[in-house]
Amino acid sequence: MTQSLEALLQNASAAFAAGGFEGPRMEARALASGVLGLAREAMVAHPDMEIVSGDIKKFNNAVDRRLAHEPVARIINEREFWSLSFSLGPDTLVPRPETETLVESVEAEIQDHDRTFSILDLGTGSGCLLLALLSEYPNAVGLGIDCAEGALRIAETNAKALGLDGRVRFQCGNWGEGLDGPFDLIVSNPPYIADGDRDLLAADVRDHDPARALFAGPEGLDAYRAIAPQIRDLLGPSGVSVIELGAGQGGPVRAIFEEFGLVAHRSRADLAGIERALSLINPLENRGVEPGGIKVKKKVGKAGIPV
Asked: Structure pTM?
């Protein structure tokens, strides 16, 4: 049995419309493109192409999953970020456009794309942020840390697929614990949603993204409190750190990092006008001096990443 692509799309669009989805035709096309491997241009040019029974079953199964509010990216196991394609897994977030604001912020901080420097990514997930940066800076090297082994396997797969595996290493860990610095750039998209806001999230996020990558205590600030002292200790003397912010969290997050001697010197809003990326520097010239002038002994080694 076969069915025309147009008939398949019409049936799916009707189901999405009945399910209350915005842009039902767009939802149907996105699934057809990802599940059946059809280019958008081909779908427009050849709506009468015949779809075979096996592909019809595969597509209809994908429609059912989407009607249950499973994200398209989860269904096709792929998401674009910074114009690069990333595989996903149960332990990774679906990369979101607002996180690209961090890449833009780094580009504003490090304008020389030929510069040689080291990057640490705390909570790397699929590796999308770190790998996007490595794609922009061909002489940079990176280390991605995550507490989920499954996420690290996905990140390694993505690095190989993008041809960046020679300049990056992924390691299981609890944020920056046990690492030796200094690093020239430290980036992080930590969990920042308050535990009590779970029911406010869209079902696509609440039911399908890993909870430990979303929630961070009663105020959504626990992860920032954990990484602030680590970033202070691991950041090089002239280095910069760029951190993603949750909506409305700029003030509290600045206060947390300033408590550990880090200075917020600029921020960047995403396309929705929400303050999303915070750039931080460590003004202490002596890496052994704590805020308040107390001198401490500190072991500082070379960043353990491939060169």
From this structure: 0.87
